[in-house]
């Protein structure tokens, strides 16, 4: 590594950070978010009456798949071999689905982007599966809540 970690090359152009000199460590990140909706829409999901099927099951799978493909979606993001990715969706009465994603790898860079991408895609999948009955849903508060590993160590949101 010839200099500081930066997303700019010597000519000032965007470039992928060279992390080859960084130590491999176990890295884990957890992100959360929510999608708010009408109470009737949440009831439809809870009762399994959505016309497109198991909303929470499909959204969970979509989030995991998105974590695995984050480098294809986010420019300059490193492709990482993930050792695990989990997405949990919980009904939050009266009007929301809470989403939590945790992603882990052993590598030279963290998995924060993978965790946040998993949450976002899971929320978008919920939206897609019930938008016919509620186009006013809102995807909100996607944020990193915990990160461990690497040189910067532990981060926990307040």
From TrEMBL:
Binding locations of substrate: 76-78, 113-114
Catalytic residues (UniProt): 128
Catalytic activity: (8S)-3',8-cyclo-7,8-dihydroguanosine 5'-triphosphate = cyclic pyranopterin phosphate + diphosphate
EC number: 4.6.1.17
InterPro entries the record matches: MoaC (IPR023045), MoaC_bact/euk (IPR047594), MoaC_sf (IPR036522), MoCo_biosynth_MoaA/MoaC (IPR050105), Mopterin_CF_biosynth-C_dom (IPR002820)
Pathway: Cofactor biosynthesis; molybdopterin biosynthesis
Limits of the Molybdopterin cofactor biosynthesis C (MoaC) domain: 16-150
Assembly, per entry: Homohexamer; trimer of dimers.
Name listed for the protein in its UniProt record: Cyclic pyranopterin monophosphate synthase
Organism of derivation: Roseomonas indoligenes
Encoding gene per record: moaC
């Amino acid at each position: 590594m010839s200099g500081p970690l930066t997303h700019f090359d010597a000519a000032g152009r965007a470039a992928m950070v060279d992390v080859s000199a960084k130590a491999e460590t176990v890295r884990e990140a957890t992100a959360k978010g929510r999608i708010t909706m009408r109470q009737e829409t949440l009831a439809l999901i809870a009762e399994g009456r959505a016309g497109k099927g198991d909303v929470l099951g499909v959204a969970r799978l979509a989030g995991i798949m998105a974590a695995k493909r984050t480098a294809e979606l986010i420019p300059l993001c490193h492709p990482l071999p993930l050792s695990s990715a989990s997405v949990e969706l919980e009904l939050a009465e009266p009007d929301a689905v809470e989403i939590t994603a945790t992603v882990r790898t052993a590598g030279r860079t963290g998995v924060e982007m993978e965790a946040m991408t998993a949450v976002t895609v899971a929320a978008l999948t919920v939206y897609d599966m019930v938008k016919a009955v509620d186009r006013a849903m809102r995807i909100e508060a996607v944020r990193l809540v915990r990160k461990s590993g690497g040189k910067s160590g532990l981060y926990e949101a307040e």
